[in-house]
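This is your field. Pick holes in the following sequence-structure pair:
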Amino acid sequence: MTARLLFTNAGNAPSNNLARSLRTGADPVFLVGCNEDQFALRKSDADKNYLVPPTDHPEWVHALRWIAETESLDLIIPTVDTDVDDLSRVRSRLGEYLFLPRASLVEICRDKYRLIELLRSNGVDAPASYLVKDMKQITGIFRQLGKRPVWCRVRSGAGALGALPVRTPEHARNWIRYWKEMRGVPVNSFVLSEYLPGRDFGCQCLWKDGELVLIKTYERLSYLGTGSQASQVSSVAALAKTVYEPKVVDTCVRAIRSLDAKASGVFSIDLKENARGIPCITEINAGRFSSATNIFDLVGKQNMVKTFVRLAQDLPVDIEDSYDAAPDWYMLRDVDGAPRIFHASDFSDNIVNAWQGAGTRRTRLRAT
């Protein structure tokens, strides 16, 4: 039976990556895309595309329902955080097409400061964090955190929005002042946190009625766009590899269970190690797949997006071990190309080491 699915924000990288994952294997799918931007739609890999009103337009929800009924859809899949928020808001009118975490959990996860405080109060490892209520507090927060640098960031948003490591209170004040004056971000939208210097992990997991169904992990090794990022890091990895990290899995599972004993849907979780090597959760994206989902879908025994679709339709899934770890697979991403995935054993395929060849030639010349 063909699954008929609608992607929001069609044409962007996350939606096209989901399409790539779903089209692997024998299970047939019919993919529909929608976007308010007709130019973005020209990049969509969906089988059929619809131009829709902006999400704040009164006809937006009616347009989605009309598409769902016209195309006999099984499921609407949001691809960015704002889509999750907007669909969660209208779940009473589109609920039969959605497989989202509960609305209150989505709201908690959108506020990084509130989320971290809740995790820490439940004994889940997360960085010590303080809300900047006004500029006068910053020096005191630095004293409380102690070690330098300190991580300064906006409490909501994606892509390391407003994030920067700062060494002095004056660094923090200047950075926050810039965002306030140039970008209109209020002072009290910023958080100062413990700086986490260790390895950077991504974890994605699927839940159904409080039961963990599937979980996978990878490590970010380098980042896209670091040349233009003041923070020199990003949630988008240029090079990533799959890893077997039970400590990361344990932290993520405890986090979701502490937030919702009946959790359902997909959760993408970011973690970094602290100075003692303990993985700490920095954010949870509830209700949408990571833009790097191909490394979870195309490697290992289970395809996460396909499993998600089956769970949403109340179809059985055959998974013996919820932690599907397949180490040493790498994913390369760049701005203008599709993600490339390969195993460590394939590193040297079709590559000639010119240094070695040139050295051998010089040795032969000296011998003659």
Q: What stands out?
A: Residues 181 and 187 are 10 Å apart (CA to CA).
